Amino acid sequence: MKIKLNILITGLLIFSAQGKVDDSPRERLEKPNILFILIDDFGWNDVGYNGSTFYETPRLDQLASEWIRLDYCYTPSPMCSPTRTSILTGKNPARHGVTQWLPGRDTFYGLPDQTANVYCPTPLSKGIKESEVTLGEAFQSAGYETAFMGKWHMGKFKVTGGPANHGYAFTQAVIEENGCDMFYPFRGHPEYFPNAKKGDNFTDLLTDAAIDFVTADREKPFYLHLCHFAMHHPIGSKPELREYFEQKRAALPVLENDRIQTDHMHKPQKFRQDDPEYAGELATLDENIGRLVDALKAAGQYENTIIVFTGDNGGRTSYHREHPTSVQPLRAGKTFVYEGGLRTPLLIHLPKYSGTKTIDVPVSSMDFYPTLLDLAGLPLKPEQHLDGVNLAPLFDGKTIEREPFVWHFPHYQHEGSYPSSAIRMGDYKLIHDYFYDDEQLFDVVNDPYEKNDLAARHPERTKRMKEQLMAYLKNAGAYLPVAPTAAEIESMRLGAIKDAKKNRRKKKK
């Protein structure tokens, strides 16, 4: 696929994606089912079809050869809560106000000899707003049976009302924030699956519930929003899979240093994929995705179901927690606005589709809202999904146009990142780091690994892109970090002390 650059009246560069010309690449379906599958902390190359050789994802690799594969899927944030809210609203985090995991922290993280140069508060919004007409509400009002299963993390239930208050009539095993792990009793939440017992796996049981829902007899079409807790910390593998991957790791060449740390980060990131625990959990996830697809086929629903499979942000590569993944050769990972923190796999199943199978046009998770409405034959809601772009024309061999991609993550994070915002215009991406008060410029088409900072070589482009970035953030009402007051410095210091004490207690356990 080719990416053409055009200029809008406003002077902003936009993408125009040229698709394969085909008279009828997809058949319009009346009231198709919708299955949206979201994976947590899912690195772009956690799958075999994107190059992983240690992890094994045979079912996903097979689906990648059969479904539409979009290799440049950007999440609107390198963190879970903002992206999840953007998927349901079609809006950029800078606009809806959920810019960090919820409820978030204003703690300062940096190198040992550093102090905070700017203050970064908790998110302006503590959850998805009541005023938003969510994707769930859009499908529910169109007569769909709607369901939400798995991780929510878009605001506490007492603040947002949870999925039932945002268009999802049926719910199962809804995780309010991050209170879960892979095995019963699910980090103190046996109520997720009341009939579960010791040894039962959360991913297995969540898939069982999804299968029950999508194969049930019904007169209306369904829309299921299925949010796996995998691959979020804590990572947990089935024993037999862990043993298998331990043997596989033992056969790898010896690596003296498995850590990489560059400028603009205060924690090292994992260099190689070789963690047996992570690989084992991922293998279970892969098997269950295949099992769910098989169930749809057996029930005769597969050819009337649109399926989206993607992640909420890049892989967690920091040594802040055990069992990190690696997204090398992409740079950094979760919480960073480098490619490794923003790119995630995206596969789409369109029934009776004969068009291009691999699309290398950059797209965003904010695009799912208008795209799914169009694919289902429903009217768009442009006043709601303000930042999303309808991708359906791509599947019809046409083009799409969009304004620049903008990311806003104005928070310090323990994983190693500093508060930053970024903008991609054409082939170039500019990153503004608020802590260092500087810019980095990368040609992410010719340098997708972001090794060559071009800011000094292209000062005019750097200046122009920063101006566009700041203009967008101002228009969206985003918070921009500023020099901290004495009270704010104390707040960040106390937050760091609290975190240190909490970590010491965990190590003692």
Description:
There is one protein chain. This protein has a single domain (33-403), classed as Alkaline Phosphatase, subunit A. Helices cover 27% and strands 17% of the residues. The protein has helices at residues 58-66, 80-89, 93-96, 135-141, 157-160, 202-214, 239-250, 276-298, 339-342, 368-375, 392-395, 459-476, 486-508; strands at residues 2-7, 13-18, 33-39, 68-70, 73-74, 145-151, 170-175, 222-227, 259-260, 269-270, 305-311, 346-349, 358-359, 363-364, 401-402, 405-409, 420-425, 428-433, 438-443. The strands form five sheets. An eight-stranded mixed β-sheet has the order 7-6-8-3-11-12-4-13, sandwiched between helices. The protein has a four-stranded antiparallel β-sheet with strand order 16-17-18-19, with helices on one face. Strands 1-2-15 form a three-stranded antiparallel β-sheet, with no helix packed on it. It is globular.
